[in-house]
Amino acid sequence: MKRLMIWLNRFDYTMLMVLLGLLVAVVFLQVASRFIFKLPIEWSEEMARFLFIWFCWLGCSYATCSYHHIRITAHFHILPRGISLWLLRLGDVLWIGFNLVVLYGSILYLESILEYPYRAMITDINMLWIFLPIPVIFLVFTLRVAVNLFDPYYFQKTMNEAELEAAESIIEGPAGGGGS
């Protein structure tokens, strides 16, 4: 499993760099063609949107492996460690449940696109390719969160420096001790 996650992290990182490069190139081409050459390229706006969708979903998944996903954790240092760890793991189990619901719904949606296909208006891309990252990324989300649950240093990795400082300031109270 560890080898799979290392490969997946490298693959995601590489794909993120490729997608970002393509996105920047398409947007630059769009701006240059419109404002410098006065010849807008019809497909560039739609393609930029599709690249951005893939980039965002893949970026969210990649953030999970490095514990940079959105979560509020400062209160975990205020609570006793056992309760904090239990709540952190409970939140991740609920997150896995949510991911599985989205995964199931997105598979049903892709099946309906296969049955009744429709295409992007300008680029004529089958919309299956645009919505495909949803089940793929939520499956990867689920794998990553499940792997994180078994990491012995999970609690420490989840807290960043800003959250640790915020928790310490709450515990210590206001600096200076004086009122206004």
Write the layout of secondary structure elements.
Layout: H1 2-36, H2 42-65, H3 81-115, H4 127-131, H5 133-149, H6 154-158, H7 161-172
Helix pairs in contact: 1-2, 2-5, 3-5
Explain this structure.
The protein is mostly helical and 180 residues long. It contains seven helices and no strands. Helix 1 (2-36) runs antiparallel to helix 2, helix 2 (42-65) runs parallel beside helix 5 (133-149) and helix 3 (81-115) packs antiparallel against helix 5.
List SSEs in N-to-C order: HHHHHHH
Mean pLDDT: 83
**Approximate strand percentage:** under 5%
Calculate the terminal CA-CA distance, rounded to whole Å. Answer: 56 Å
> From the helix content, strand content and strand pairing, which structural class follows?
mainly alpha
Counting DSSP E segments of at least 2 residues, the number of strands comes to: 0
For the CA atoms, what is the radius of gyration? 22 Å
Q: Describe the main β-sheet briefly.
A: none
The best one-word shape is globular
